[in-house]
Design brief:
By secondary structure, the chain is mainly α. The protein has helices spanning 2-38, 41-45, 84-93, 108-111, 116-128, 151-158, 172-184, 188-191, 234-243, 253-261, 268-281, 296-313, 315-318, 336-339, 344-352, 377-389, 400-405, and strands at residues 58-61, 64-67, 140-141, 209-211, 216-218. Helix content is 44%, strand content 4%. Helix 7 crosses helix 11 and helix 9 (234-243) packs across helix 11. The radius of gyration is 24 Å and the shape is globular. The termini are far apart.
């Protein structure tokens, strides 16, 4: 009787231990899924109409087209044979398990900041998804950029390996936000100027720049003249990150995709931490004196025409004085995104229109119709010039040539 009871107790203990291990594994996988969302892995590694994380998405660059890789657990075409060590080295060092160099279209310069524990959790999640047997498509890069050894030079100039180190003079919340923005979120990939070599110097981090091949301008996160959020309330920032709309602005273009695929899934604590960090890195910037490369007579005529175009096509939503009807119809008066040095984004919005992302916080977003087929280049330039200079805005007029150049910009 005693031996049977002992065996039964041992069996129960074994079952309990197995159940606890399974629960722990499930927790790690769930955490990995959350972190993969924070890293926006889906956006690159899932092609349109393709299998989840099976790769094959074309990423046009100034050097040719790069195709993203299969990171499902398929043993033949994915990462099924990788170990957690292999995955961490790839994230941390920007090298494949065999030592091969990875093109910096993968943001390993940011992912190097990711902790080993977070890397292992992401790997556990990727191991849990359905494998997809899909071979990686060869890149289509022009000579000499198809020579991977050139990446060594790029790494020497622009890559600094190392996990995130907290700033002990800042709060835990600020440091969590910095970890997400600088690391997993790889926000600097878009919001920093990219030079002819495809790199960004550390001194220019988060200072804004034109996104190559997409013709959208990612505004500076440090300058309050652009997207610097120093004078925004925390709620306005968190609303924008989580739902894509706030009382201060709306996201469109590539940022709408980031909110849709990634940021809307972050919990309130992490979203607030990002907001605290972003507000903290903003640098006060005095408004620039308005200046224009256009002759005074030409700019005056454009702005006069622009008011007519605005009153006819825009005022019903954005208000006669640019006051808007936030959060769905953003204000144009005193709107930093309208006044930035680059006029690319307002020109593209007039030409192509667009929608904020559909999110749990804003499931039925209001959109803006395209006017490319209704307005001439002169009219587009005129209305953009008007909204950039009316109601106290301190932007500059734009030319019809600038409007015409952006008619052929890719929509995706």
């Amino acid at each position: 009787m005693g031996s049977k009871l002992t065996i039964t107790l041992m069996a129960l203990a074994a079952l309990t231990t197995a159940a606890q291990a399974q629960d722990k594994s499930s927790d790690v996988i769930a955490r990995g899924e959350y972190l993969a969302r924070a890293g926006d892995c889906t956006a690159c590694h899932t092609a349109s109409e393709g299998r989840l994380f099976a790769g094959g998405r074309a990423m046009p660059t100034p050097f040719g087209t790069i195709y993203t890789s299969n990171i499902t657990p398929d043993p033949e075409t994915g990462i099924g044979k990788w170990s957690a060590d292999d995955f961490y080295r790839t994230m941390h060092n920007g090298r494949f398990p065999d030592g091969g160099l990875i093109y910096p279209a993968m943001p390993f310069a940011s992912y190097t900041k990711v902790t080993r524990a977070d890397s292992d959790a992401i790997f556990a999640y990727l191991r849990s998804i359905a494998p997809a047997n899909q071979k990686n498509k060869p890149h289509e890069l022009r000579f000499p950029y198809d020579n991977r050894q050139l990446i060594l030079g790029w790494r020497t100039l622009y890559f600094r390996e190392g996990e995130f180190k907290p700033d002990t003079t800042k709060s835990a919340e600020w440091n969590r936000g910095a970890y997400l923005v600088e690391g997993l979120g790889h926000c600097g990939m878009c919001h920093s100027p990219i030079n002819a070599l495809g790199g960004t110097s550390q001194s220019d981090a988060f200072k804004g720049g034109l996104i190559p091949m997409q013709n959208w301008y990612a505004p500076s996160l440090t300058s309050n003249r652009e997207a610097g959020l120093g004078d925004w309330g925390i709620k306005d920032i968190t609303d924008l990150l989580q739902s894509g709309v706030s009382m201060r602005g709306v996201v469109y273009g590539p940022m709408a995709e980031v909110v849709h695929n990634s940021l809307q899934y972050l919990n309130d604590e992490d979203t607030r931490a990002m907001a605290v960090y972003l507000k903290g890195i903003a640098e006060p910037s005095p408004p620039p004196a308005p200046s224009s490369a256009l002759p005074t007579t030409e700019s005056s005529l454009l702005i006069s025409l622009g008011r007519t175009v605005y009153d006819k096509n825009c005022a019903s939503c954005h208000g006669t004085q640019g006051e808007g009807k936030p959060p769905h119809w953003p204000p144009l008066a005193n709107n930093q995104s309208i006044e930035m040095q680059s006029a690319v984004n307002p020109i593209r919005m007039v030409l192509n229109g667009g929608y904020p992302p559909g999110t749990k916080g804003n499931p039925m977003p209001y959109g803006m119709p395209p006017f490319a087929g209704l307005l001439s280049d002169n009219e587009v330039a005129a209305v953009v010039s008007y909204i950039r200079t009316a109601w106290g805005n301190r932007g500059t007029p734009v030319s019809a040539r600038e409007a015409n150049e952006l008619r052929s910009a890719p929509l995706n």
